[in-house]
Amino acid sequence: MNIQFRGQNFEISDLMQKSISTRIMRLKHLFVEPVNIYITLIKFQKNHKLEVVILNQDSLRLKEEIFENDLEFGLNILLTRIEKRLEKLQNMTV
User: Fold this and answer.
1) Fewest C-beta atoms under 10 Å: which of 13, 31, 53, 86?
2) b/e for 69-78, b at 16 or more Cβ within 10 A?
């Protein structure tokens, strides 16, 4: 699993990268390896845009984004959406 971070108008600290990576690793059982995950955080005046793109060798492209003023809350919502979509995709292939 390869996770890449990008911040725009926002610097993503090492602690934040570690926290996000740890949360994503909890979903590892839902990924078909190898997988590349691209996380972008963009800060506007009062809001943040969080975007997660997941690509794997089977050409799965999963993209979720959210606008939220509370970064932690937005991240929780985003990861919950991703988990539900991955579970749904996994159930469709079984």
Assistant:
1) 13
2) eeeeebbeeb
- On the question of pLDDT at 74 being above 90, the answer is no
If one counts the domains in the chain, the total is 1
The strand pair at 48-56 and 35-43 is best described as antiparallel
CA 62 – CA 41 distance, rounded (Å): 17
Task: Let me know: does 23 contact 75? Beta carbons within 8 Å.
Answer: yes
Picking from 16-25, 27-36, 53-62, 80-89, which range would have the lowest pLDDT averaged per residue? 53-62
| C-alpha radius of gyration, the chain, whole number | 13
Residues in the chain: 94
Higher pLDDT, 59 or 67: 67
| Burial category of 20 from C-beta neighbours within 10 Å (exposed 0-12, middle 13-18, buried 19 and up) | buried
Residue with tokens 């089977």: 58
Question: Residue 43 gets which letter from DSSP?
Answer: E
